[in-house]
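dumping the sequnces here before i forget
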Amino acid sequence: MSKSNFTRRGLIKTGAVAGAAGLTLPTYLRADGHSGFTNAPTGDTVTLGFNVPQSGPYADEGADELRAYELAVEHLNGTGADNGMLETFSSKSLQGNGILGKKVEYVTGDTQTKSDAARASARSMIEKDGAVMITGGSSSGVAVAVQALCQEAGVIFMAGLTHSNDTTGKDRKANGFRHFFNSYMSGAALAPVLEANYGSDRKAYHLTADYNWGYTTEEAVKSSTEAMGWETVNTVLTPLTQTDFSSYIAPVLQSGADVLVLNHYGGNMVNSLTNAVQFGLRDKQVNGKNFEIVVPLYSRLMAKGAGANVKGIFGSTNWHWSLQDEGSKAFVQSFGTKYGFPPSQAAHTCYVQALLYADAVERAGSFNPCAVVEALEDFEFDGMGNGPTLYRGEDHQCFKDVLVVKGKENPTSEFDLLEIVEVTPVEQVTYAPDHPQFAGGNMGTCNPGA
Amino acid sequence: MDAILLQILNGLDKGSAYALIALGLTLIFGTLGVVNFAHGALFMIGAFCAVTLSRILTLSHTVIDETQKDFLGNPLKVEVPYIYDIFGQTTGDAIIDWAVPLSILFAIPVMVGIGFAMERGLIKHFYKRPHADQILVTFGLAIVLQEIIKYFYGANPIPTPAPDAFRGSFDFGAMLGFDPNTIIYPYWRLVYFAFAAVIIGAVFAFLQFTTFGMVVRAGMADRETVGLLGINIDKRFTIMFGIAAAVAGLAGVMYTPINSPNYHMGMDFLVLSFVVVVVGGMGSLSGAVLAGFLLGILESFASMAIVLETLPGINQIIIYLVAIIILLTRPRGLMGRKGVMEE
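..and the predicted 3d for all of it:
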């Protein structure tokens, strides 16, 4: 937010925005604190917009996100069987009586995991339903697109599952916030574990999904593994629509590589991992070492599709239901009792984002996006399942511990697919806001809209 | 050399799937004159026959295990398949392990039934309509079928592994005198290729050496004359539709261990299969098979790292590029017959 812009036009623009936002008083103390922004709630209810994939390949993940949001709304309104993470959240502003005394209502949209569809559904929720905040999603392409839309429209965007560096890197926006971790953090957390298990003399071969998230993940894993001595033999982009990866996997052994990194997510990950295991890569010995496979971003929901193939394979994840901190236990208890199965990491991040938004509004005393931005920037909290967490002001990225996980050898149930190998402390995954992998972004200033 | 051999092998299994689907498409087009855009959905339903059978085989009752806890801290409910109660655990496990091959027996009647129902219930009414109408109705049907599958089975891929005996891969390189690990090929893909060869051979033999096949071939050549000879050609064509559905379904069943099936897998194959049919020549069965393998192998070559370095993105367009070239130089496709789709 402390961006200096000394061109003439820049000064006029900054001045105009600063004037509009009221430089002299914090936003929430101004007379127009409860109006003068997009979709200012007027009655005794407030509407939130949950924009999740309800159709398309990520529909199951979207359904889990929606379950989490419904649970969050119950907890915010105080109508649930329990209070979930409200009990463990370090901030005690939320009372279970809605947000600022207004009952929380919600509308949902279907992103279809397509940028244009996601923008259309977000726009409809903002313009037709009067949503004051948009949240959710299961793809970085969608997150970046919807975030930009929310910035223009003057509403807050609380990103759902999005892992690309760009969401809070080159495409960061003042009105957008991300709780989920990112590619850089995955690389930084995984590298030491990979070194400890596979040694520092390895030759890696990357297969990378040919889109934004794939690129940033490949870059992050490549640079952090090369820093510890690994050599990158080759990186190959695979089309996002690819279903059979055999022609990409067959040449891996010939290349002399002894590790295969699959920068794939969702259906791509399920298929490439299944193919790699079919080709017997994991039974091979190369350069005198066991051949290994790494999946930088794990999702339990997706790992299910790969079945027994995930056993023993390392990856990283934002959160896992088996964590034993009070926040995670409260959330799993609440979610599990209501729905009968444990929540996914997508559900967790969405639930937390909804609570963080509501809490920021309470603390700011206003739904004005600029007041919410002020309240969330550099906000430190705990009790939400990831240990002490910081919402960094410079890029609106949450900084917290990262989980390194491994496919479990002997699962006891269909949910018990991953085991936590290490909780990488936040210091190890923290980077400077202007880190090269995040460079080129211009957050702009908060936009309250109307 | 070894890299080239490797990609030829790779192309064979992909080509097998294309060839099987394209064969069914061509059978339907050749006999009924219908462009069936729901054919990919039949492939997908075949795959879900395998999923369904393995679900049936693993139908379970729950036993409470007090010694273990579930994620909420309650005693763990362990699922015990009924099949254990009937055959004992060892035999039960073996049956579950072989679920995919067993699904062939399950899929044939199901697919033939679905084929009959589709043809009699819907497609029959579109014989005299323009191809555009047929494409619209079958495409719509494909979407309906895939949404039905999504409703019951969810959107995520469902793992359906091959029997343990076929796990792992075969080292062709070592056999041919190359370094070990240079040419490896999963056992199940070999099975798939052999299976496809048998099915394709069986369909050709059926059409070539049986009276039924002879009548069908005559019908394909001149439907009216065969009808005038007092032969109920419509009934035979309905049966051919059922057979085509079964071929697509079996291609789907056997494909499940290669890629975990999901509801839109049919669409992924459909467009490519149409390109295969067009390249092979509309209405030509051998053309469909030939083009299936040809395009499968070309696609494999196009995704070699060395090719991608020289021509980035070629892996995404190769099939369409070849289709354009072939259609420009041989407008009827590789083995297309005169008069098909030209009236």
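Chain B has one domain: 2-329.
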